[in-house]
Amino acid sequence: MSMDETHGGGMVSAILSSIVLLLLLGRTVDAQRSLEFFDLLPEDPKLYDKMRPPKKDGQATVVYFHVTVMGLDSIDENSMTYAADIFFAQTWKDNRLRLPENMTSEYRLLEVDWLKNMWRPDSFFKNAKSVTFQTMTIPNHYLWLYKDKTILYMVKLTLKLSCAMNFLIYPHDTQECKLQMESLSHTTDEMIFQWDPDVPLVVDENIELPQLQLVKNYTADCTQVYSTGNFTCLEVVFVLKRRLGYYLFHTYIPTCLIVIMSWVSFWIKPEAAPARVTLGVTSLLTLSTQHAKSQASLPPVSYLKAVDAFMSVCTVFVFMALMEYCLVNIVLGDSDTPPKPAPPPPPPSSSGPDSAKLDKIFDIATKENAMLLSGRSQKSTTGPPPGPTPAQKARMRALNIDRVSRVFFPFLFAVLNVTYWIMFAEYI
């Protein structure tokens, strides 16, 4: 082989090697090039309408929801609100998009700002008072694109939600607080919300509330018909049962002790008016303060609550104990007042000692004549009177009233407590 042929073959090999190297470098650069939003749009971007749901075969677009509840707190009965920390996920399929050519993994992370130029569900929290989006240390949301053109949008939120509460059997009540998500502008003909078939709801098992206990949670459908159409809606229901321990030791037991304290007056003698009246009035005022304290954290509802009925009956018991002493005082009457002093003897007349003796003899004779006419002897009149005096009888009647009250009031109060706790035993 000649020198020219050898040189020519080397040139061809070098050219081919250069072409292969350029192709490899081109592919590497293309693989390392960042993904742009226009890479996801159809070849004709005008065919993509971000305001129109991605229907398939004329069927409504299905959006799947998943909610992870990380915390429940700040339950305020006065304003009927509560707070919740959640991860909120929405999943839908948009067949109008194109997949990246170099996508090899199961999903790819997209820029969240691209949602402004894509169709997304117009869901909102129906019963939310306020929504806080978490931004530390970065905005807490992300966007995934799967190989089957499914889009997942996940966001972390702190919600302040309204909760319609009923306090008819407070503090034995069980409340149902909801988290409702509804479509703002798309009717059910265009979009339908459904719960994720695999894991629709996850609630942290370590949630602890000071006065309430999370006994149950479940998902439901809250779709409603408005004047403008039928709008899809999903809800999470939290069943919260009130813990009775706080109210048992801070309301019921102190109230019962105040009522029992008012019965001490039944063992105080009827003549001690200041002690018995002070005890009754003090018990009544203390019970009124206790009742007002039990209502401090509740809204002023117009219906009677269970704790109101209990406190009102206890107030009646204390008031009746005070009225019992009023009856005792009436029965006792004025018999305990000291007798009137005897009138002073008349001053001696100026006629002398003989006149005084004659008056004395005349008085004695008058008394003896009266005794003879009445048929009674002097001996019978000078003996002790038969039976107790009216004052003693009145005092005995007053003491009998106290003795009956010592048994009647505790017995009736015990019947009240047994009836009350039997009625609400199923709510404990």
TrEMBL record:
It is found in: Cell membrane; Membrane. GO terms for cellular component: plasma membrane. Residues 48-243 form the Neurotransmitter-gated ion-channel ligand-binding domain. The chain crosses the membrane at residues 6-25, 247-268, 309-332, 404-423. It holds the Pfam family Neur_chan_memb. It is a multi-pass membrane protein. PROSITE patterns: NEUROTR_ION_CHANNEL. InterPro entries: GABAA/Glycine_rcpt, Neur_chan_lig-bd, Neur_chan_lig-bd_sf, Neur_channel, Neuro-gated_channel_TM_sf, Neuro_actylchol_rec, Neurotrans-gated_channel_TM, Neurotransmitter_ion_chnl_CS. The keyword Ion transport applies. One of its GO terms (molecular function) is transmembrane signaling receptor activity. Residues 373-393 are annotated as: Disordered. Coiled coil: none annotated. CDD domains: LGIC_ECD_HisCl, LGIC_TM_anion. Residues 251-332 form the Neurotransmitter-gated ion-channel transmembrane domain. Keywords: Cell membrane, Ion channel, Ion transport, Membrane, Signal, Transmembrane, Transmembrane helix, Transport. This is Histamine-gated chloride channel. The gene is 409040.
